[in-house]
Amino acid sequence: MIGRLIDGVPARGLILLGLLMVAALVAPLFASDYILTVLILIFYFAYIGQAWNIMMGFAGQLSLGHALYVGLGAYTAASLYVHFGIGPWLGLLVAVPIAVAAGAFIGFLAFRFRVGGVYFAILTIAVAEFARVGFDHLSWTAGSSGLFLPVKQYATNDLWSLRGRPVMFYYLLLAATALAFVGCRALLKSRMGYFWLAIREDEEAARSAGIDTFRYKMIAVMISAGMTSFAGVVYAFYYNNLFPEQVFHISRSIEMILAPIVGGIGTLFGPVLGAFLLTGMAETLTGTLAALGVDIPGAKQVFYGICLLAVIVALPDGVWPWVARRLGLTERNK
Amino acid sequence: MTALLSVDNISKRFRGLLAVDKLSFEVPQGQIFAVIGPNGAGKTTLFNMIAGVFAPNSGGITFAGERIDGLSPDKICRRGIGRTFQIVRPFPALTVEDNVIVGALLHCQGVDDARVHALDVLRRLDLYDKRTQRASGLTLPDRKRLEVARALATDPKLLLLDEVMAGLRPTETDRMVSILQELNRDTGLTILLIEHVMRAVMALAAQILVLHHGAAIAEGAPEQVVRDPAVIHSYLGAEDI
């Protein structure tokens, strides 16, 4: 199994991956509190980008409503905690199935009735927007006034209840990103992975090669939704407050997909690299502007826009394929 | 010989246009059977009904003793009918090898088994040396062979070839003809082809069906069909064969 996963990866790629992992593991020893929060954000986006990439990069289904799955995960786990004192890991057992069911609902509607391309994307936006408006009026989750988790200063890290200091969330998201990376690699190299790529490349040709495209598209959406909802649970316990207007907003959905687009759609390293580039550079920009005493609202959004434009014009396949070629990390074929 | 595929009185109408009109024919097990006819005769529509892209409005299609009309394309492929497209549709971003692995995975559960099978097929189709290239970078003759390879990798009992010779130079056509002959001889594969290149049809087909305005105007052995006055009038024209 491990042999299959690293098959064709150049040795220096594995060494580089090992070094990066070590660097990520020791980073909190050297990072300031501020840098640590930036790193948390980076791994949050890297993880979600990986989950989104299963749908878009592998199976070719564009979701512009992934905030839905983050929000469902976040609200489910937070409500269970606030109302019944049920911890996040048990909450996850409820949150993931809810998100998977939502994904299955969207997938069924779209794929059963042959809604594809931009219309599928619009459907994903629409359902996320329904959720935003719906949660605004749902009194059980405190509606538009926001759901708050009890907060105090934590001296210790309680991983079971996800109550603790940022460094705990850092390692949690790092582990999730690493697992997602390995998991996606395994999926991509599996029978299903080949079927997804075939569907992405040409759905009609895939069908005539015997692939049950409905089934494999459904599986892609459900895995992606379930994975994404885990990030929502972490989000809820990290930020401790949830507002439908923020959590389900379309700008959240867009923000999530920038990392894999900039890094390289359909690649495994793209979402990770994209998250580092975008979040890292955006924070540097904010920091620099603050140091210079300049206050420009929306500078980050403009920066994201410029980054997207630059990538689309210069490296339409994303930054990672270019970096991989430069570093001689392109996968060999047997 | 028993019929592997039997088409019984099928019709397909696209609004006002009757594309296929009460057509019946049988393809025996192990035969190479050609469908010819002018553009718009309904050949591709016929193929699309056999391959499950559309259901016929009336009539039935029986394959290996079971009715298949109205089944979806993936189910039909799983029953044992592989097809190529008139306008080639390889998976452009995938390598030649991966394109064929996708087909091979229909019957192989593991990717490694599928790769072994795919490489066998690629050797047969003269594409082995190009296996690491992306399909998007191939020339047209190579893409046509890749279509055949992907369909063959699904281990079909019947292979539907929609104008695989179109756009090929004569030497490439001859190569494709000999590949198809070898396949038919070595594996007993039944082949149903739509073709305009008469040179290939005459070399390959044991039986020819001529379609015109959705209906059969002639059917028989090649020598007999090309001398048929109705065929010469409607399709072959003044062209000398």
Main attributes?
A: 334 residues; mainly alpha; 2 domains; two-stranded antiparallel ribbon; 73% helix; 1% strand; globular; B: 241 residues; alpha/beta; Rossmann fold; six-stranded mixed sheet; 10 strands
Summarize the structure.
Chain A has 15 helices and two strands. Chain A has 334 residues and is mainly alpha-helical.
Distance between the termini of chain A: 17 Å
Q: What's the arrangement of strands in the largest beta sheet of chain B?
A: 6-7-8-3-9-10
**Secondary-structure element order of chain A, as H and E?**
HHHHHHEHHHHEHHHHH
Radius of gyration of chain B: 18 Å
How many β-strand runs of chain A?
2
* Helical segment count of chain B: 9
Report the mean per-residue pLDDT of chain A as an integer.
92
Named CATH topology of the domain at 1-80 and 190-241 in chain B: Rossmann fold
The separation of the N and C termini of chain B measures 30 Å
What's the helical proportion of residues of chain B? 25-40%
Molecular shape of chain B? globular
Order of helices and strands of chain B: EEEHEEHEHHHEHEHEEHH
The CATH architecture of the domain at 1-80 and 190-241 in chain B would be 3-Layer(aba) Sandwich
Structure description:
Chain A has helices at 2-6, 11-30, 33-58, 67-84, 88-112, 117-136, 166-188, 191-201, 203-208, 213-239, 244-247, 250-263, 270-291, 299-314, 319-326, and strands at 147-148, 241-242. Chain A is mainly α. Chain A has a two-stranded antiparallel ribbon with strand order 1-2. In chain A, α3 runs parallel beside α7, α5 packs antiparallel against α10 and α13 (270-291) crosses α14 (299-314). Chain A is globular, with a radius of gyration of 20 Å. Chain B is of the alpha/beta class. Chain B has a domain at 1-80 and 190-241: Rossmann fold (3-Layer(aba) Sandwich), CATH 3.40.50. Chain B is built from 9 helices and 10 strands. In chain B, a hairpin with a 2-residue loop joins β9 and β10 (215-220). The two termini of chain B are 30 Å apart. The mean pLDDT of chain B is 92.
